[in-house]
Write a structure and sequence with these properties.
Layout (H helix, E strand, L loop, with lengths): L2 H10 L25 H19 L9 H15 L6 E7 L2 E10 L8 E6 L9 H17 L13 E6 L7 H12 L6 E6 L29 E6 L3 H13 L4 E6 L15 H5 L4 E5 L21 H17 L1
Parallel strand pairs: 3-4, 3-5, 5-8, 6-7
Antiparallel strand pairs: 1-2, 2-4, 6-8
Helix pairs in contact: 2-4, 2-8, 4-8, 6-8
């Protein structure tokens, strides 16, 4: 997409219902959530998530569904620009422009920052509700929750929110981003890849694993959110699991070594280029087709998602990011 065209798009975003969500219930100020206020907090977050999902879901392949793909970028830019100064990372693939879109929410300290990313493209023919409108919806909602104007409620570390392009074509956008961070010798406390966060099942044996040994350690019911990180993220994953538990979301975590090459399926998202660049990175995921029958299918629709579970994940991540 031509950058000047996208800039002109942004001017019209406030008037365009395809590019802007009207939030019915304001998101709560993210403080310590008391048990008696947890249901109301989750309801507000779920309403925000559902609004994003309704606007984002639809085929978003850059070549076969270019109209919806460009509208998705327009929507993401309009939403992110509410919470920080929007910048783009432009790159060319086969002489065509592509963009990662990003904002930064300043932290209270000068500690190494955290990068939170989610890809916005889909495979051809799939509406991509879970893959990966769910990840982008959580990304946008986290930005809203963590952008409090009061410094007392701002996160401890600066947070970089990035919407990646071309994940489905070989993690291209995230690789450009990771290599750029490494080339500039930027420090990074943690990278979080939000990859498919909406499909859950309470049926026995609904969860599969890439190695038989893992099925003897982890649950056979696909009702949990998974954290998969390199060894440097072990303490961060343990802390995130505690916050997920407080939010009411079952959570399991798996540390991997050698950039996950012994279990190639653990490399199937935008965290992998950050592993390869030497950064601590975690994929937050519902485990894709190890659980969901809708992966990369036309049936990957909004109706298959558990938005209440997504709200719990969002709250758990938000609390984790504030405290890191």
């Amino acid at each position: 997409m031509d950058l000047s065209l996208l800039t002109s798009f942004l001017i019209m975003c406030e008037k365009d219902k395809l590019a802007h969500v009207t939030v019915i219930t304001p998101l709560p100020l993210l403080t310590e959530t008391l048990p008696e206020t947890l249901p109301e907090t989750l309801t507000a977050i779920a309403q925000q998530l559902e609004g994003h999902l309704r606007s984002l879901t639809g085929p978003r392949d850059p070549y076969l569904h270019s109209g919806r793909y460009e509208l998705t970028q327009r929507y993401i830019c309009a939403e992110l620009s509410q919470y920080g100064s929007l910048t783009s990372q432009r790159f060319l693939v086969q002489a065509r422009e592509h963009f990662n879109w990003q904002i930064t929410i300043p932290g209270r300290t000068s500690l190494a920052p955290v990068l939170i990313g989610a890809h916005y493209d889909t495979v051809p023919g799939s509406p991509g509700a879970d893959d990966n409108a769910s990840g982008v919806a959580v990304l946008l909602t986290l930005a809203a929750l963590l952008s409090a104007k009061s410094s007392a409620h701002s996160p401890r570390r600066s947070l970089h929110f990035v919407a990646f392009d071309l994940e489905e074509y070989g993690l291209v956008g995230s690789r450009v981003c990771a290599e750029n961070w490494r080339a500039q010798q930027k420090s990074l406390h943690l990278m979080l890849s939000l990859e498919m966060l909406g499909y859950f099942s309470s049926a026995p044996y609904s969860q599969q694993y890439p190695l038989p040994a893992l099925s003897r350690i982890y649950p056979n019911t696909g009702n949990f959110i998974a954290l998969i990180g390199n060894a440097a993220t072990t303490l961060s994953m343990m802390a995130m699991k505690r916050q997920m538990k407080q939010a009411g979301m079952p959570c399991e975590w798996l540390p991997v070594f050698n950039q996950g090459r012994q279990i190639p399926r653990t490399r199937d998202s935008d965290h992998a280029p950050f592993w390869d660049a030497g950064y601590p990175a975690v994929m937050v995921t519902d485990t894709a087709n190890l659980r969901s029958p809708h992966y990369h299918q036309p049936s990957d629709t909004l109706e298959t998602l558990d938005i209440t579970a997504m709200a719990k994940i969002t709250l758990g991540l938000a609390a984790s990011l504030r405290q890191m």
